[in-house]
Each structure stands twice: as structure tokens, then as C-alpha cells.
Specification:
alpha/beta; seven-stranded parallel β-sheet; Rossmann fold; binds 2-phosphoglycolic acid; 7 helices
Length: about 240
């Protein structure tokens, strides 16, 4: 595989997170009202660790930006350390010298998660739509909690988690893991102006190969991003050997 794949950048593993943090800081610097949807998980964590210093180097700040959470588990109490809103608050928001103007998270503590999903899309629209969605890549090809079988027009919704997603939640510290979640739908992801798919580590190599070279199929939801004109797949050289 080569960087000849459209939208693909490959960075050495040692500089991968720095490169992405700098790119994010540059975007925010040139567009202070940036609306960015961010994921949780192990992939973006080193990027988030580097974000405050990257912003400082770029002379940029997030005080006018909107941060939107990509997905959330259902059934974990508020404040649970595996909750996605809690992770993003700890890893992104709190280390910033200036918090974003808005942090949009799902209302999963209320009685009606379905209504919370509709309210979420409306809130994103009121914010002006997503400038950028940053995504990790599940080993089963999911993005957000859009599991295999998801159609490209899938809305923001409640979903049953795939076994591998539940297993991942257990490794993050939720035991027993949640069985359901809410996620920005593929339709919402594809409506963003830009999409950055972050991929690191050799355990992602087989699924990244499928995303780049396999068929565009609902079996591998990330493959459905390939037609998006603003897609960047930013992989490290461990995820993209050879
Ligand atoms: P990871 O998860 O970043 O922890 O590998 C990615 C995902 O499952 O979406």
C-alpha cells in the first residue's frame, strides 16, 4: 500500500500524534469558531495530550470553538470514568488553558435517549454544522458506534453495541460493559466538511487494508467514508506496513 490512496497520509509512529495535534491546532488557529466532533478511545489520546502545547505553538485558542462528542454509552452513570463525556472532559477540555465556548454531549441521563439523539442533531445544526469530524477506526471497521451493517444515511441514534465494542469498553474499565450506546450517525459524519480518520498501531493494519483496498460496503462502515471529498486518513507506519 502506498500514500497514493486518495486522502491518505502516513506518518512515522514517533511523530504521528504530534503531526495531528499540530494540524488540529492550525485549523483552530485559522478558524476560531471551529465546530469539531471528537472521539474517545486509545487512538486519539496521545493527540489530545499534545493539543495544549500545539495550540500554544500555533498561537491558537479554543475559547470560541465548539467541541461535539462523537458517541456515548448508555447505562453508565454520570461521572463514570469510561463515560465518553467524562473522558473527553478529562483528556481534552480540562487541560486547555481556555475551555471551548460549547461542549456538546448527549443527554443520556434523561428518560428518553431517542429524543436525546434528535435534540443532538438539532443542536449541531444550530452550531452551524460540523467543520470536522475526527474518528478512530474500530477493529471491525466501525466509526463512532456505527457498527457493521450501518447504512450511509443512518441518523444519530440508539444502537446495540457489537461484541468487539463491548469488549473494548471492558478493557477501558467498564465491567460489565454497556450493551447499548448512542452515536452520531454516518449521515451526520458524512455531512461534515472534513473527516479525519486516525489509525495507529499494527493491530489496525488488517482493517485499514480493508478500508483502503476492499469494497465500499456497509460491512465495513469506514469504507463508506471513501467517497467524501474532505476525507483524510492519517495512519502511522505501524498501521500501514510496507
Ligand atoms: P481505539 O478504538 O481508539 O481504542 O482503538 C477505536 C474504536 O473502536 O473506534
Amino acid at each position: 500500500m502506498t500514500a497514493a490512496h486518495r486522502g491518505l497520509s502516513v506518518l512515522p509512529a514517533a511523530g504521528w500524534a504530534d503531526g495531528i495535534a499540530d494540524a488540529l491546532a492550525a485549523r483552530i488557529g485559522s478558524h476560531p469558531d471551529f465546530v469539531v466532533c471528537l472521539p474517545t478511545g486509545s487512538t486519539p489520546r496521545p493527540v489530545y495530550e499534545r493539543l495544549p502545547s500545539a495550540l500554544s505553538r500555533a498561537g491558537a485558542a479554543m475559547g470560541r470553538a465548539t467541541v461535539v462528542l462523537l458517541d456515548e454509552y448508555l447505562g453508565l452513570p454520570a461521572g463514570h470514568p469510561v463515560r465518553c463525556d467524562d473522558q473527553l472532559r478529562r483528556q481534552v477540555i480540562e487541560p486547555l488553558p481556555e475551555p471551548p465556548a460549547t461542549f456538546l454531549a448527549f443527554d443520556v441521563d434523561g428518560p428518553d435517549p431517542v429524543a436525546a439523539c434528535a435534540a443532538y442533531d438539532a443542536a449541531i445544526e444550530r452550531a452551524g454544522g460540523l467543520d470536522l469530524v475526527v474518528l478512530g477506526l474500530g477493529t471491525n471497521g466501525h466509526v463512532g458506534m456505527n457498527e457493521p451493517g450501518t447504512a450511509p444515511d443512518a441518523p444519530t441514534r440508539v444502537i446495540e453495541l457489537a461484541p468487539s465494542t463491548m469488549a473494548a469498553a471492558r478493557t477501558y474499565g467498564a465491567d460489565p460493559p454497556p450493551e447499548r450506546g448512542v452515536t452520531l450517525g454516518l449521515a451526520g459524519i458524512l455531512a461534515a466538511r472534513e473527516i479525519w480518520l486516525l489509525v495507529s498501531g499494527d493491530r489496525k493494519a488488517p482493517i485499514l487494508r480493508e478500508v483502503l483496498e476492499g469494497p465500499v460496503t456497509t460491512d465495513v462502515p469506514a469504507s463508506l467514508l471513501r467517497g467524501h471529498p474532505g476525507l483524510r486518513i492519517i495512519a502511522d507506519d505501524a498501521a500501514l506496513p510496507g
